[in-house]
Amino acid sequence: MSLQQIFATRAARMKASEIRELLKLLDQPGIISFAGGIPDAALFPADAFAEAFADALTPERQALALQYSVSEGYLPLRQWIVGEMARIGIACDVDNVLITSGSQQALDYLGKLFLSPGDTALVGWPTYLGALAAFNAYEPHYDQLNVNGNRTVESYVEAAEKNGGTVKFAYLSADFANPTGETLDRAAREHLLDLAEGADCAVIEDAAYQSLRYDGEAIPPILALEIARKGNIENCRTIYCGSFSKTLSPGLRVGWVVAAQPVISQMVLLKQAADLHSSTINQMAVCEVAERCFDDHVARIREVYHRRRDVMLEALATYMPEGVEWTRPEGGMFVWITLPEEVDGADLLARSLETEKVAFVPGRAFFADASNGNTIRLSFSAMKEELIVEGIQRLGRLLRGL
Ligand code: PMP
Questions:
Q1: Is 208 in the pocket of ligand 1 (CB under 6 A)?
Q2: CA distance linking residue 111 with residue 107, whole number of Å
Q3: What is the CATH number that goes with domain 13-45+295-401?
Q4: Phi and psi for 339 in degrees, rounded to 5?
Q5: Which residues form the Aminotransferase class I/classII large domain (predicted)?
Q6: What are the tens digits of pLDDT across the range 336-376?
C-alpha cells in the first residue's frame, strides 16, 4: 500500500513547482540570478541583531526570551507596530495586532479561516505564487480580480455560486506587487473596497513590500482608506498583513496581521493550534532593532535598491529587443517582463541557464490557471549594479538570437 493513496484531497492541490528543479542550478558558480525575491544579505543589520540577541540573553531577560510565550505575540513589538501603523493612517490598538511567523503564515491562516472547499478567492492574474500555494490547501476556486471596474459585483458572485461556494476574499498587494512590481492607484483601492462591500467578502492586503518605495507619492493602504470611510477598524473588512522580511531579516520569520478584533481572536486560536507562538527571542530582537534603527536602516536599503532598480530599467531599455515589454515599479524588488507571445519563459530559463548563466522566474507559476507562459519575473534587489547590467545584456543577447 502506498500512503499517497490515503492523503487528504487537499494534498493533490499542493504541488512542487517544476521551476524548483531548474532553480537548484543556481548554486553553480558564475550564475547571475534575478530569481529570488530576496533582500541583499550584505545589507542585513547584523551588528544591531548581535547586540539585540545578547541583550535578550542577559540573566534578567533570558527567562522571557527562552520561555514559551503568548500566542498574540511579544507585547512591546505589537506596541511598536501600532505606532508604525498610525504613521500610515491605520489607527489600531494592540488587540488588533497578531504576530505571525512571517506573513506567509498569515496567508495560510487566512485561507484556513475563510475557505471551505469550493469557495472562491479573488486574486490578481498574476499574483504572488506563495499565496496561491497557501490557499490551495483549502481547495478554493480562483477568479480573476479586476481592480479597474471592468467587472460587476454580480459577475463575481454568480461565478462563485456556480462553483458551489461564495466569494470569501480578494487577495492582493497594493504596493509594488510580487511579481509585477505594480502599484494600485487610489481609485483602484477605493473600487476594491466597493467590490468587497458588494460581494460581502474580506480584503487581504499583503503589504510585504510597502516600506520599499523609491519614488512617486505614497498612497494610503487599503485598510487606511477603509478606516477613513468607516471611522473605526472594528467596522472594517480589510485584513492587513505586514512583514519584517524585506526590511530587517526574512530568516527570523517575524510578520504581523492587523484587523478587527474578532478576526484577530480567531487567528490567535489558529496560531495556538498550529505553533503556539512565534519565536520569542526573535520577536524580542526584531523589536529592539526596530526601536533603535528601523527608519535609518530602511532608508539605507531603499537607497541601494532604488539604484539597482534604475540600473535594471536602464539596462532593459538598452539591451532588450523589439517586442519585449516590462513594468516600471516605483518600489519593491521586481520587474515583470512580457515576452513575444511565442516565447515560453520556462524554455527561456532552461536555455539561459545553459548558455548565458542568467536565472529568473518563469511567469506561469504566478497565474492560478498556469496561463501566460510568455512572461518572466526579474528581481533586482540582491545583485550588484555591474552584474545587473551584465545579466540584462546576456538576456538581451539570448532573446535576439531566438
Ligand atoms: N507576500 C509577498 C507578496 C511576498 O513576496 C512574500 C515573500 N516572498 C511573502 C508574502 C512572505 O514573506 P514572509 O513570510 O517572509 O513575511
A1: yes
A2: 6
A3: 3.90.1150.10
A4: -90, 165
A5: 68-395
A6: 999 999 999 999 999 999 999 999 999 999 999 999 999 99
Upstream peptide bond of 250 is cis (omega within 30 degrees of 0): no
**Ligand 1 centroid – CA 355 distance (Å):** 31
Residue 2 has pLDDT above 80, yes or no: yes
Report whether pLDDT(16) > 80: no
Does the CB atom of residue 329 touch ligand 1 within 6 A?
Answer: no
Q: How confident is the model at residue 14 (pLDDT cuts 50, 70, 90)?
A: confident
Mutate to test the pocket of ligand 1, among 183, 243, 252 (most ligand atoms within 8 A of CB): 243
H or E, element range at 37: none
C-beta of residue 340 within 8 angstroms of C-beta of residue 323: yes
Helix (H) or strand (E) holding 334: strand 334-338
What string of H, E and C letters represents the secondary structure of 361-377? EEHHHHCCCCCCCCEEE
Assigned C-alpha cell, 250: 526574512
List for the chain the helix, strand, coil content (%; round to 5).
50, 15, 40
pLDDT, residue 18, reads: 63
Mean pLDDT of 282-293: 98
Nearest alpha carbon to residue 204 among 265, 85, 124, 89: 124
Q: In what order do the strands lie in the sheet with 361-362?
A: 325-326, 334-338, 375-379, 361-362
Architecture of the 46-293 domain: 3-Layer(aba) Sandwich (3.40)
**Annotated domain spans of the chain:** 13-45+295-401, 46-293
Element (H, E) at 202: strand 202-206
Share of the chain above pLDDT 70, in %: 98
Alpha carbon 376 to chain centroid, angstroms:
17
Find the mean pLDDT for residues 172-201: 97
Q: pLDDT of 35-65, one tens digit each?
A: 988 999 999 999 999 999 999 999 999 999 9
Long-range contacts of 187-191 (CB under 8 A, 24+ apart): 188/147, 188/148, 189/147, 189/219, 189/220, 189/222, 189/225, 190/225, 191/147, 191/148, 191/149
Distance (Å) from CA 96 to ligand 1 centroid: 21
Asked if 22 and 349 touch (Cβ cutoff 8 Å), the reply is: yes
